[in-house]
Amino acid sequence: MYQSHRGDVAPKEQRVLCIAAHPDDEVLGVGGTLARHAAEGAEVLVLIMSEGEAAKAPHSRRNAARRDNAAAAARVLGVHRLVMGELADQAFDAHPFIELIHPIEALLREFRPHIVYTHHGGDANTDHQLVFKATYAACRPLSTLSASVEQLLCYEVPSSTEQAPALPHYAFLPNVYVDVSAVWATKLAALRCYAAELGTWPHTRSIEYIDALAVKRGGEAGLRRAEAFTLIRARVGPSPPAAPDAPPGSADPTLRS
Ligand SMILES: [Zn+2]
Fold first, then answer.
1. Nearest Cα residue to 85 out of 123, 134, 40
2. CA distances (Å), 97 to each of 75, 91, 111, 129, 169, in order?
């Protein structure tokens, strides 16, 4: 969404990857922006690393419901492809870190996104923190796998980002604002696909708070409603060579450093 200085890749030719820890994070944080990308003709892929409640109740009906909810929300937003991971909800730290990186690297290799959205590393939720770290590791500048990535941005998730400790290390400091006024109804429709996950005001995962946050973020940038992001890296210049066809993960020696 953030336009590079070069403008080499037209919006309708962009490939956009959104990485989320749990079903509903993608809509809460970046749903309006994904709807804009899709409406502009970009190819949008969403990776959700966990089905949600897997750690507490494997194969539960609620799991199936959350998969259905995620698929329904993706359809509403115009997402072209949804990939669901198999990490244990609220227990990403029980997995070897490489297991978080592998699914991201696999999509970097296959999909070659121009824009990547991921969690803010200072969120209160540990799964979110780890997804940020895994995304950053997969998209590290020295990796040939991330050669296609021109922009790496972090999104905020109401009920997690603002719940972090009031310490500088955790602060979400947005510097990119995307106007979502025209797609706000689409974002709300996608949120309603996750009705069971929404809270009642004054919970910060209530429709009232989510709307108020969009208005606040919009006001910070002269927009009616906005989603806000921290730009971690934008690369301006010719694309490096494409990644070689190598197995994922530890094949890249820079991962060990
Ligand atoms: Zn989450």
1. 134
2. 31, 12, 22, 12, 21
d(CA 204, CA 206): 5
Between the CA of 128 and the centroid of ligand 1 the distance, in Å, is 6
pLDDT tens per residue, range 107-147: 999 999 999 999 999 999 999 999 999 999 999 999 999 99
Instruction: State in Å: Cα 253 to ligand 1 middle.
Output: 31
Find where tokens 């115009």 sit. 78
pLDDT in tens, 196-249: 999 999 999 999 999 999 999 999 999 999 999 999 999 988 766 665 555 544
Domains of the chain (ranges, CATH numbers): 12-234 (3.40.50.10320)
